Amino acid sequence: MGLGTVRVGTEHVYDDLREVSAALYKKALTDLPPDVRQSVGAAHDREEGSARRRLQVMVKAIETSDETGIIVCQDTGICVFYVEIGTELPVNGARLTRALREGIALASERHSLRSSIVHPLTRENRQDNTGAGVPAVHVGFADGGDGLDVLLIPKGSGSENMSFLTMLSPADGQDGVKKYILDRVIEAGPRPCPPTIVGVGLGGTADQCAALAKKATLRPVGQPHPEPEIAEFERRMLEAINATGIGPQGLGGATTAFAVHVEYAWTHISMNPVALNIQCWRGERARAVVGSDGTVTYGY
Ligand code: SF4
Asked: What are the tens digits of pLDDT across the range 130-143?
């Protein structure tokens, strides 16, 4: 496990947060969240034939990673941080962002992680899993809070490549939204390494909608949306997606997705944006919560 305390209020806090970031990267790649483990296990017990055999491979990958510390899947992903800074915490956002980025580079060197990050045109690879704009860091502020919440997802390319955005017409209504989601999951087929978590963004602006879809994938499996109407929409979409029979790794079966998660924002009267961001079976995420006394608690 990573650093247990950071020296809040001192110049050393950024060195310590670099170590926390490095620990989070290793943890996310090697220690899958309990809800994902439970989902893989339950699907394994439910499925038969080739679907069960694919799930058996996933169970084995998790066990091997637990025993050896080897990453669960070869893809080291593209790192995305979600940071919430308590407004009472004396932290400089720019230096924090730099520390998180340096932590990714540090972990890459320390654990010999494959560098997956390249320049979009020249394909130059710095060999440290960073580059301009990577890791992506989303920052929010907790009014009156005195701690720090850092969540990391190193998103695998197989599932990130299966990202979609459209601007439907309001006249398309809920049926149009449901059809778009289902059609995209069918189009994605085996490529996002199902069973997946299907993140859906509804409303907002185009960029906001895409961000909501990714945010939706962060919610633990088994935790429906707090609003009953949205939770019901999630449940029905999951049912429809699993009825496609795409199944684990696209080889057929009853479990194409572990969950459908929706996040929404209100939108313009003449807009109806819908976005999908799919998370693969690995469902990697790791979290560090830093208290006002500097104590670090690691989780998911
Ligand atoms: S999509 Fe996920 S499970 Fe598939 S190769 Fe990438 S990281 Fe691995």
From this structure: 999 999 999 999 99
